[in-house]
Design brief:
single chain, alpha/beta, Rossmann fold, eight-stranded mixed sheet, three-stranded antiparallel sheet, 6 helices, globular
Length: about 260
């Protein structure tokens, strides 16, 4: 990965500080977006890392445009919504249950399908209807939240999986022997067509992979985010950034350190 004008790395003291930054960005981007179009379309990640942000966003009274906000998922496990590992269930419990968002404005990837591939196909059909893109254009989410696993995966795009090379489909069914669940994921081109991408990388267990991606420039899915016409913000806490040589080269921005690596 080569750092460029479409990518920015910020290091914060704690995940709480990252949430502060994200709340400001959410508000600013939504306001600007809704000045020019009717809807604010977002894709949210599952996992543990974004849960603090979702909980704080649920109580963020400065944002009152939920009726114009459409919430989708970056990926999902192929399991029922009442499964504790279901991403949509977590986002509902942390965020959606506490805001005035119309039921039709949030999309749960249906598990009432014969298999994960059909669920992925139906998700793609839904997205095409929502975005109404022309020809073969990919959709462009206004705000996208991604995370990184300690193995370098993002969404449900895993190292060594051919899914990372998919360049025509919007959605994918992901099957691996090491996974407890099959997955449904947005494809890499869809991730890269988002206008504003925020990448959460928190915790000591992410430090080694952060070093591999940012310093050693090794190719992992999380290092393949290169926006087509947008901006990617990599947001790390100090634990995740422990192996990065940034202390001699940074500028401050919104409570974080902007670094060049």
């Amino acid at each position: 990965m080569i750092m460029n004008l479409k990518q920015k790395v910020l290091i914060f003291e704690t995940p709480y500080d990252i949430s502060n930054y994200l709340l400001k960005q959410w508000s600013l981007i939504a306001e600007k977006t809704l000045e020019n179009q009717d809807h604010f379309r977002v894709a949210l990640a599952g996992g543990k890392t974004p849960q603090e942000f979702y909980s704080r966003l649920s109580a963020f009274r400065a944002y009152d445009q939920w009726h114009r906000t459409h919430v989708c998922l970056t990926d999902e496990r192929y399991c029922q919504e009442d499964d504790p590992n279901n991403n949509y269930r977590m986002i509902k419990e942390k965020l959606l249950n506490y805001v005035s968002i119309p039921e039709e404005n949030s999309y749960s990837i249906s598990q009432d399908q014969k298999d994960a591939q059909q669920a992925a196909d139906n998700y793609q059909t839904f997205l095409k209807g929502m975005f109404q893109t022309e020809n073969q254009e990919f959709p462009s989410f206004d705000f996208m939240l991604l995370g990184m696993g300690s193995d370098g995966h993002t969404a449900s795009l895993f190292p060594g999986d051919s899914a990372i090379s998919e360049d025509t489909s919007w959605t994918l069914a992901v099957k691996q022997h090491a996974l407890t669940y099959e997955r449904i994921s947005l494809s890499l081109p869809v991730l890269n067509h988002a206008k504003n991408i925020f990448f959460l990388i928190c915790g000591q267990d992410k430090a080694e992979m952060a070093e591999k991606i940012f310093i050693q420039k090794l190719r992992f899915p999380a290092g393949c985010i290169n926006p087509v016409d947008g901006m990617c913000h990599y947001l790390l806490d100090r634990q995740a950034a422990a192996r990065l040589p940034y202390l001699d080269s940074f500028v401050e921005e919104e409570g974080g350190l902007v670094v060049e690596l």
